[in-house]
Structures are given as C-alpha cells and as structure tokens.
Amino acid sequence: MKSALYLYNTLTRKKELFEPLAPPFVGMYVCGPTVYSEAHLGHARPAVTFDVLYRYLMHLGYNVRYVRNITDVGHLENETDDTGEDKISRRARQEHLEPMEIVQKYMNSFHHAMEKLNTLPPSIEPRATGHIIEQQQLTEKLIGEGYAYEVNGSVYFDVEKYDGRHNYGILSGRVLEDMRANSRALEGQDEKRGQFDFALWKKAAPGHIMRWPSKWSDGFPGWHLECSVMSTKYLGETFDIHGGGMDLIFPHHECEIAQSTAAQGHQPVRYWVHNNMVTINGQKMARSLGNFITLEEMFSGSHKLLARAYSPMTIRFFMLQAQYRSTLDFSNEALLAASLGLQKLMNAEKTLAGLIPGGSSTADISGIAAKCHEAMSDDLNTPIAIAHLFDAVRIINLVNDGKEKLSAEDIRSLQELFRIFIHDLFGLRAEESAGNDRLEGVLKLLLDIRQEAKAKKEWAVSDRIRDRLSELGITVKDRKDGYDWEITA
RNA sequence: GGUCGGUUGGCCGAGUGGCUAGGCAUCGGUCUGCAAAACCGGGUACGGCGGUUCGAAUCCGCCACCGACCUCCA
Question: Which nucleotides in chain B have some atom under 7 angstroms from a protein Cβ?
C-alpha cells in the first residue's frame, strides 16, 4: 500500500526516488521566516508544503528530525552593497523597540498563525542569534581554508576562488562568467574583492545594537551562514532534505552550498526541495503592489482585496489543491470554491461516520487508498489525492441516499482512509466554532421553536425566524431529522 | 539582457501519446409547505502556426503572451 516516495530535486531537476542516508532516520531542514514583520500568505506556502512532507514521511514510517530556523539577525535589506541594513534592526528603529522585542513579537505572530494553520511544530527551531559562536567558527574555518578574507573588520566569502575549485551555480544553474557579463559592477567603495562575494561577518556600525564581539570586529553574522551552521549542527555534514521557497534558490541556497562545500569538501544536502510562490489575482504579492496580505488579515477578512474572511483550514485546503511546485493564485473566487469544496469533504466524513452497512458492497472502493498513496508518493501530488478522496465522497453520498451499498468492512476502510488523509497527512481539522456557548444556546432555542412551528404548519412563524436569522448572517439548513446552521456572513 | 518555469473548459487546478482528473460555478433532477441546504446527473477544454505520428493538449521547431529569479522577499 505504501509506495516509494519520489521527490523533485532542484539539484538534478528531476524527480528522484527518496532514499534516506540512514533509514529509518530522516533529516529535514527548512528555511523559516525572518521575523521582522507579520506572517503573510507567502509564509504559509512552505509551512504547509513541508508540514505535509513531514507528515507523509512519518506516515511512511520514517523517524524525522524536522529543523526549521528563525532568522533573527543578519538578513540585510540590500545585500549587494554596503548600505544594506539588517531587517530586524531597521524595524526596531521604526517601531522604537529593542531588536529582540521585534523578534519576539513577530515570532509569536508567526507561531500563532502556524498553529491556526495546524502545522506541526518542528523538532528543533533554532535561531541565528543562538548560534553566533558556531557561525564565527565556520567563518574562521573558511578563512583557514582560503575561501574567505577579512577587510576592515568584515569577512567575505571569495566566490571566484570557490568557483575555481568547485561549482558556484550548481543549484541555480547560474554560470559565474555569464553573471559577470550580465551585470555591471557597482560603483563606489565596495570592500568586497569580487562583486558576487557575500558577507560571512559584518562589522557593526557605531549605532548598531545587534553586535557580538569577534576577532575581526564587533559585528554580526551574514545571512547565509546561519543555515549552513544550524543544519550541520543538528543534522550533520550531509543530510537528506533541505526545503524552502523557490526564491531562495539564488542566492541563499547557492551560498549555503558554497559555504558548506568549501568547509567540508562535499555538498551538504541530498535532496533540495522548493515550493513555488503565491500570487494575488495573477500578480506577485509585494508590499509595493499593495496586494500584500498577512495571514491574520486573511483569517479576519480585513483587507481591501478580500470579499470575506477565509478560515485557516480553507487556506490550507486551497494550498493542497495545487501541487507545491506550481504557482498558486489567490482570488476571492478561488478561495470561495476551496471553502465550499472543503465543506463537502468534511460533511462526507460526518456522513461516513453514520453510514449503515449493507451486507455486501455494490460500490467498488478498492484501489482508492492505493491511488491516494501513489499520488502522494509522486512528488506530493496532493490535488490528485484529493480528487480520489472526492471519488470516495460521491460513493459515500450514494450509499447514504440508499442508491449503493457498502459492507461494514468497506465502511471501516473508508473511515481509515479519511482519517489518514484528511487529518494525519493533510492536517485538516474541523474549524473551531466562532461563537460562544450562551449565544449558541439561544440560537438552539430559537431553532427548536421553529421546528415546533413547522410541525404545526405555522409557516409564518417558522419563516420569520428563518428570514430574520438569514438577515443576521446565519443560514438555517433544514435536514430530514432536524436542522443545522451556519454563520455565512 | 541572462537563467528557469508556465499558457488547460466561466473560475481554480491535475494529467497522460490513443481511454475520465477533481473542486467551484452553471444547467437538469431528487428532496422540501416554500425556499435554502444536502444529494444525484449532464456538458468534453487544452495560447498561435508548422512538423513527427495511424493518432498529440501530451514529442519537436518557431511565434506570442505571462510569471519567477538575477535586487529585499516564503
């Protein structure tokens, strides 16, 4: 039933059979957020993608160590020249807070959003500031190996030199020579020897709060360094999976490979896995375009582009309806479609729980589970797996209508299939009810009265309750044996 | 300009050389006091132009358009 997993490896640009270095253990490192602003839609894509990969690997029986970092220092606003300011520092200045207050504030916000999206917490969530010493050690090692040099208290990685012995561009497909030909050197007093060299250690300007002593200067580590250091520390010099958004392929992951390879003599990662980006109404999401939506805005509907609120599970399901390597376009129409589709799936699960076995089955459900697993094993093709689940949904509803029959055994295996896929792998859960108990009690009273009125054929009363509730944004759904209701506005 | 990816029915979104994605919407039906909800069912799309092939949305070429990265981004 459980098939071999194939993953698309950015390094080879092919789907490859996933074979861990040391089964049953799997090491997976995913680039987490730089915590300098609210968690947004773009953060949700890798979080959900790698959450599903994490869940699926565990489902396949692997013992997974999932490391996802928090970048809390070193990520510059503009890396190519020396004017670049650390994102955390900059935000701290803007908000009149300590840098560590900024980090804490937005890290909390990120965790809160991740919890709502029902992503499992990683095994280890290391922070760059907690690994300053290790980053200095790696910097020192790179200097010792001749791949890094110091200028005015800052240390840079020598890309030219590295490319001479290894291959800078192995991941992104870039060729240093072409890059040189296609970009003009920046004017000015750059202290770097080569224009593509990147910082391992930056000397802090006088007013810079985030600074640590080092043999070169009081300063802070470069952005790419933390991932090399922390992945090595917790997963070893070679580990199985490194994930992140496609936008990180260059330069971030390319630089990570360069650093680790220069230090170790061999590459650090066996499978590079990258999720694609999200777009809004067909456009890239960017602050400058005014279509930048945070997750909280998504959940509450408080953004001018949103026609209504979309629940965390709707967002999650929406993401799973696309394969992780495709761009995913957010629009009100698409999100609404996803929320209705999700409802249909969850309703069917409820129906399934109450299904009455009918001797022998007239519907054929064999093969559905295998197809779902096959889809997942084919580079996490969640949309295909979902499509197969909807085949099961149709059968469940037909059985519920008495048009087909399922044996007790088949019902049990469908229940298991739904439990595994909907909950264990897709991480979907029932939405928490937004109201409070007391109001729900009142609502129930009202709807009970309506039921009684209906029983007495007092249509004026029953319709009035229904219509007034509808005006208040509560839709009453009559069922054969009672009623249901839903907050729709 | 360079590198890479994409263009599928009203919308989103899979996919394979010949056979059906799936969801939403729409239409028809069942149910219902009416309606809603729920459920069932119908509709056969693949950017343009050539080529390969018995046969291509799927392979090749050219063109057009879109996007990503190259500069901060998940």
Answer: 1-5, 10-15, 21-25, 31-41, 66-74
* Of A399, A425, A451, the domain-final residue: A425
| Interatomic distance A35 CA / B52 C1' (Å) | 54
Q: Which of A275, A304, A338 is the last residue of a domain?
A: A275
Q: Give the count of domains, chain A.
A: 3
Q: Which nucleotide is nearest to A40 (CA to C1')?
A: B74
Tokens in use for A390? Answer: 């909807």
Nearest residue to A402 via CA among A353, A363, A346, A349: A363
CA→C1' distance for A394 and B31 (Å)? 17
Looking only at the bridges linking them, the beta strands covering A278-280 and A328-330 are parallel
pLDDT: is A287 or A169 the higher one?
A169
Let me know if residue A41 belongs to a domain. yes
Q: Which residue is nearest to nucleotide B15 (CA to C1')?
A: A384
Q: What local confidence, expressed as pLDDT, does residue A194 receive?
A: 85
Measured CA A93 to C1' B45 distance, in angstroms: 54
Please report, rounded to whole angstroms, the spatial distance between the CA atom of protein residue A336 and the C1' atom of nucleotide B34. 28
Mark whether A194 and A51 lie in a shared domain.
yes
- Same domain for A350 and A419? yes
The verdict on A202 and A300 lying in the same domain is: no
Smallest CA-to-CA distance from A422 within A372, A374, A460 is with A372
Domain span including residue A483: 437-487
Per DSSP, the residues of A304-356 read TT-SS---HHHHHHHHHTS-TTS-EEE-HHHHHHHHHHHHHHHHHHHHHHTPP
Q: Is residue A39 a part of any domain in this protein?
A: yes
With CA of A289 and C1' of each nucleotide, the nearest comes out as: B73
Question: pLDDT by residue (tens digit) across A249-291?
Answer: 989 999 999 999 999 999 999 999 999 988 888 777 877 677 7
In a domain, A86, yes or no: yes
**C-alpha closest to that of A241 among A130, A380, A375:** A380
Distance, CA of A333 to C1' of B43, in Å: 21
d(CA A344, CA A393): 8
State the complex-level ipTM.
0.90
